[in-house]
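Design request, tokens follow.
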């Protein structure tokens, strides 16, 4: 355990096994030691916060792991290259959504700490913390539902509401991911014809900028939404059939869209 001097509170959640933590975390309540209560002043002005925790059940001798929760067939990664809870100094870093504060209790979502995890610190989240188009390894799960939920969360984080346009955009991006892999790949450009909600959600998923280099093109129009995804080898055109079916990963692509794939000549 860490010295009591460095613990400012405790995280309480429904999970007591780190291996059972869902990707993206879950709901949690953080109890702050009353002697630190003054440090919470005006914290509720932030929508998100960083929490630093001590993963007290971590194996501190592990230096490389297979991210089996995503895909057991992935290669090993050093613990400093991914967010594994097992590491020499098991300090957890989580960006969580601040839901409310009641006295010395902070209610959050998106927390990846198990019940009883010691809290080391709280830091406010600022816009400057965001890197809009980062480069990182793509750890692709074979589980369609898992990939869909991660993509949907990215869209909601950017668009800030779950509307019909966002669900359509996410499902289109999900279909493109089957062909191109990660939609954040800097070699992929995307052209959108449709509503601003569709365009905004796709920009949140792809992290595509309007310049430097330009990867994102948008034309507002009514009628069926159309997205065109392409790199130097493949062009994929996805047109919404407007069937009224649920934009779910459980519904086959051809029940929702007209998909045209063109391989470019070398």
């Amino acid at each position: 355990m860490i010295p009591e001097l460095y613990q400012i509170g405790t995280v309480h959640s429904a999970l007591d096994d780190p291996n059972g933590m869902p990707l993206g975390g879950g709901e949690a309540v953080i109890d702050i030691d009353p002697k630190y209560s003054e440090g919470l002043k005006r914290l509720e002005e932030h929508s998100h916060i960083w929490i630093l925790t001590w993963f007290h059940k971590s194996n501190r001798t592990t230096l490389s792991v297979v991210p089996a929760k995503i895909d057991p067939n992935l290669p090993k990664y050093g613990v400093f290259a991914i967010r594994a809870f097992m590491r020499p100094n098991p300090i957890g870093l989580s960006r969580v959504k601040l839901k409310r504060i009641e006295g010395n209790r902070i209610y959050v979502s998106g927390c990846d700490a198990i019940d009883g995890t010691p809290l080391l610190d709280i830091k406010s989240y600022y816009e400057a913390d965001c890197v809009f188009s980062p480069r990182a390894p793509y750890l692709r799960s074979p589980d369609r539902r898992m990939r869909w939920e991660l993509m949907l969360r990215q869209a909601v984080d950017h668009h800030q509401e779950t509307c019909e346009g966002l669900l359509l955009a996410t499902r289109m991006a999900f279909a493109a991911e089957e062909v191109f892999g990660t939609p954040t790949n800097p070699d992929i450009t995307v052209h959108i014809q449709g509503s601003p909600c569709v365009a905004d959600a796709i920009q949140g998923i792809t992290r595509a900028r309007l310049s430097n280099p330009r990867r994102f093109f948008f034309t507002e129009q009514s009628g069926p939404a159309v997205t065109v995804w392409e790199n130097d080898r493949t062009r994929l055109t996805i047109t919404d059939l407007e069937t009224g079916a649920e934009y779910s990963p459980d519904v086959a692509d051809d029940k929702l869209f007209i998909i045209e794939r063109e391989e470019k000549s070398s």
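Comment from the thread starter after seeing the answer: thanks! The longest strand covers residues 91-102.
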